[in-house]
Amino acid sequence: GRALAARLRQHVAADRAAFAAALATGRPARPLADRARCQGCVAAICGHERPARIALARLPVPPAGRLELALLGSIELRRDGRPVDAPEWRRRRVRDLLSHLVLRRPDTREQAAADLWPELDAEGQARNLRVTLTHLLRGLEPERRGRDASFLVQTHGDALLLHRGEWFDTDLWRFDELAQAAIDADRRGEPSAALGPMVEAVALWRSEPIDLAGAEWALPDVEARRAKLGALATRAGELLLAHGDADRAREMGEVALGVDAWSDRTRQALSGLRDPGQLAAVAACAPEYVVSG
For residue 84, how far is the Cα from the chain centroid? Predict the structure, then answer.
């Protein structure tokens, strides 16, 4: 067993290295691990081909390209920088399920099914989840064979865990990390260290995440991050003003007022620009971005 595991780990490590080199150089890599080679290794150790196939199927193989999911704006999925337009990705419930796995990490089958199909009974929810999960895995890992383990969506009993790493990332996770880094630095009394993550986090917010906010289960998560966006933009504007960078401070103020058009703190910060005309223009445009309720 140990020899089998060691040989398989060597093969998968070599494949991961090949994929990493492909990302760095732009040259194509093997779309799949050399399963025939791995299977031959397992068969040689086990003495049987069928156990070799079973053992190999349990070993997740990295996908053929790096996936990036954009949620802070219109939902977009890219593979190695190119938009994914697979038939599976055009299904709204497939996009909803992937969004759920991002926001509820780790997720559970029961919660995902209940949130996505609240109108169905438990049996109908479970059935729809199985079908939708199959479509999602096919869209994320098109080279994966039907019974092979998924690399990106790991299952542990009822739990579903979306794997984050070199093969999958999303702007929402990066936003959360940058926001937390900025908040922690500011609390430590290090505003200069906080400013960079603040500005980066604000830049990730491309537009209102209307697709995501359209799902009732996701709305509280969206609103919590909108509030965080407004606080980050306001604080970044204050720090930029302190550094004498009026233009970038004004940009941050526009973002903050887009979140809360009547924020006294943001208006007070913007008043430091000594440009009443600009402030009036920003305030006049802000209400169209405000989410009611």
Answer: 15
Buried b / exposed e over 116-139, threshold 16 CB at 10 Å, is: bbeeeeeeebbebbeebbebbbbb
The whole-model pTM stands at 0.74
Cα separation, 226 vs 233, in Å, equals 10
Q: SS3 for 195?
A: helix
Rounded-to-integer distance, Cα 87 and Cα 109, Å: 23
Q: Give the whole-angstrom CA distance, residue 80 versus residue 100.
A: 23
Nearest to 103 by CA among 227, 219, 233, 259: 219
Work out the percent of the chain whose per-residue pLDDT is above 90: 58
**How confident is the model over 42-82, as pLDDT tens digits?**
445 445 555 545 545 556 788 889 999 999 999 999 999 99
Strands 76-79 and 82-83: antiparallel
Helix (H/G/I), strand (E/B), else coil: 160:
strand
What pLDDT, on a 0 to 100 scale, did the predictor assign at position 52?
Answer: 47
